[in-house]
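Hey, I'm writing a tutorial for new members on how sequence and structure tokens pair up, and I'd like a real worked example in the thread rather than a made-up one. If someone can provide the structure for the chain below, I'll link this post from the tutorial.
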Amino acid sequence: MIDHLDNLLRHLFVSRIAEITADDQVGFQPPDQDWRNHVGSLSGIALNIYLVGLAENRKLRSNERVREYGNGTVHEVPAPRRLDCHYLITAWSPIAPSPLVEPALDEHALLYQAAAVLTNAEPLVPRRVYAPDPLPGTFPDAIADAELPTVVLASEGLPPMSDFWSTVDWRWKPAVNLTVTLPILYERKVAGPMVTTRITEYRQQGGTGTPEVWIQIGGHVRTGTPPEPVAGAWVRLETSPGGLPLQTTETDADGRFTFTQLAAGPYALRIRAQGFAEATRNIQVPSAAGGYDVEI
């Protein structure tokens, strides 16, 4: 996931800063002597985007869980943890200083442009950054349209600059501090089979008479191979035989419908959806097979 963020930042700067015209003008290696040698081989100014630290963003931690339904199974996914990626962005000129040339001025101008580009792009939305070009084919769907929290010129969570520069290089350089937060995704886990029938019995406390039984059922309207949900479909529950209407509803975004307060017995489902022929299905409540789905 971090490598996709790196490429996203590179594309952002190459596409929006006039002086940055090639991918090799944006690097992610340590800003040490090897990097200086690389800059010396370039024909233009460069940006170094160095990942100096990773930390969990505990303020965004959540105990919420998302449930997904498919093929008769319920999958449960915990809310993702959040990973703060701390970058130091520095500007590098290939021109050697002289009494007539101050490359530091060009570097300072580039730092300002980098900060301005990041500020105008926050929060980072990958599809928006790459537009009008499409996202790279391997880009994760989970963050393609996500608003990635971004802090430009962060003042906390970074190593002491004196320690950093004494480790990688003896020459201190000004830097734009950037923090971008990525989700750490959990694997989907099976929570159990989907509940399609709920049976409720009512009787007086201490009574010995026959209880009153009500049944709630739920199913899906789907189409195609593999099956895709049909949202907004009109679904009517009818008597069978006879075809007398009893209850009417519409499917939700997942193609799911429910009917409540039913007695045991035979029924029919009638389904209408725009662009599809009308469909019917005879059902038995409660269903021995446990399903009331309809394919149209």
